[in-house]
Amino acid sequence: MKKLLYILIILLLGCVPEKENFQEMTIQGKITGKIPERIEYTIPINGISYVGFENAVQPDSLGNFKISLVIDKASFIELSDGHKAYGTIIAEPEMNYDVSIAVEEKKNKFTIKGPNQKGQDLYNQNPNRSLLTGHFEVEATKYSKDSIPKRIKQNLEESREHTLKTYNDLLSDNLISKEFYELVSIDQHYFYAGAQTSIALLNYLLSERKMNFLTEEEYTDLWEEAFQSNPVSNPALMRSPWFFYYVKSYLWYKDLVEDNIKPEALLKIKKQELPHTYHIELAKTYLAGKQLEYYYAAYLYMEAISQNYEKELVRLFELFKEAYPSSEYTQFIASEIIPIIAFHRKQDEELNEHTYILENPKDINSLKDAVHKLNAQRVYVDIWATWCAPCKKEFEYNSRLYQLLENEDTAMLYISVDKDDRAEKWMEMIKYYQLEGYHIRANEKLYEDIKRLRGEDRFGIPWHFLMDGEGNIIQKYMSGPSEINTLKKQLQGN
């Protein structure tokens, strides 16, 4: 299996260029508390830092780790454990940084000793410092009921200037370098401009239901003014982690406002299963050179990790390699394209012999109806959907789950809440993840029965619960297979 994976990577990557001899920067770190298996870190490529383009280092038994990178300019380096952010280092060539990560502390979880220390500390207190901790939409929601464009722009400008003033003071006192300040400045300018575009986009989407709080002219002007004051064409934008989402908003503006493409036309494209091709062609219309290469790569990566396993992405990746045969981004996309290839190869295989699709789903209108089909004493239920990334993450631990359920004489029932247009994808994912047990895709009545069980609690998935053979609830919330020891205790009544 490892040999096959290696061959696939070589075939997907083709020739990867050698690194230029830039100047090495070192991060010496220590993590305390629960030590993870690996610490992920973004790799700046020509000063460009994106959350998907990353590598990882393994801490030793004491939590010590070391990261060495060659960079030619000040760059953002994000440290994380999966989607859990630790902190950000604004690194400069030839500099050394001493990082402490206290996983279980409530305050001062991430501290840096080294160049620009006060600036580093300040930046890590900013909730809008990276995609893992904030987003344009988070800032935009503060203005969700504001109907005065002038006030929206003024408040955004004041927030930005307030953020940058402290850095300006540090620069005046020679406590941070000019390069540090310039990188933070461009980053925050584009963050607040991005928040302004999000307010405009929100109004556009709400206008379909006549719920917009700004007029069409007002939100269109708001959108346009953001791109005029902070243009996409600025090369410095590529050094901000916000580049991808800022450009994505720009392309939406061009498509929906300037070109006046209607939502129903986009829906038709989606049904033709060519939405990604359409978007890349749109990007080619308005972007060029390094910007297009970066955006194209980031788009493929972001769509691939959603785990919808769309064949269209494999074809677009091949086109990307043809257009950019020496791209440094290729290696990061390839690792996410390989599972898509494996997914579609899996569809040629027979369904797992321990997988059962419940017959006559139209007649199964309640949880009791479903459980009665199983003739089991106890049933462990997993509510999931093909579009739910956390649901699919739990499937990685299923081998341990099935052994536990067999030992505890408990049946496995998967109930998908996917709509009819995802029926084929539902069956494909059952086969790909080899989901053993009983399966049903909920009709409207069964879905309503599931929601009634949830009651006033917010409905979220994955959701696991335990029922008896008559369909009565034994325990409304159970742990998932990723927490197998806790689940074992729950099944044993401890």
How would you describe this protein?
This protein is α/β, with parallel strands linked by helices and 494 residues long. It has helices at 2-13, 117-124, 136-140, 149-172, 178-207, 216-229, 243-258, 263-271, 275-286, 289-304, 311-323, 330-346, 367-372, 389-394, 398-407, 423-432, 444-454, 484-491; strands spanning 23-32, 39-42, 54-57, 64-71, 75-81, 84-91, 96-102, 110-113, 355-357, 378-384, 411-416, 437-441, 463-468, 473-475. The protein has 3 domains: 20-115, Immunoglobulin-like, CATH 2.60.40; 136-346, no CATH class; 355-491, Glutaredoxin (3-Layer(aba) Sandwich). It has a 6-stranded mixed beta sheet, covered by helices on one side. Strands 4-1-7-8 form a 4-stranded mixed beta sheet. Strand 5 and strand 6 form a beta hairpin. The longest helix is centred in the middle third of the chain and has 30 residues, at 178-207. It starts with a helix and ends with a helix.
Coarse morphology: globular
**Strand runs, count:** 14
Distance between the termini: 39 Å
The proportion of strand residues reads: 15-25%
Q: For the largest beta sheet, what order do the strands appear in spatially?
A: 9-12-11-10-13-14
Work out the count of structural domains. 3
Helical content band: 40-55%
Helical region count?
A: 18
Low-confidence stretches: 1-21
Mean pLDDT: 90
* Biggest sheet architecture: 6 strands, mixed
Our Rg estimate from Cα atoms comes to 25 Å
Q: How does the helix and strand content classify structurally?
A: alpha/beta
Oligomer: single chain
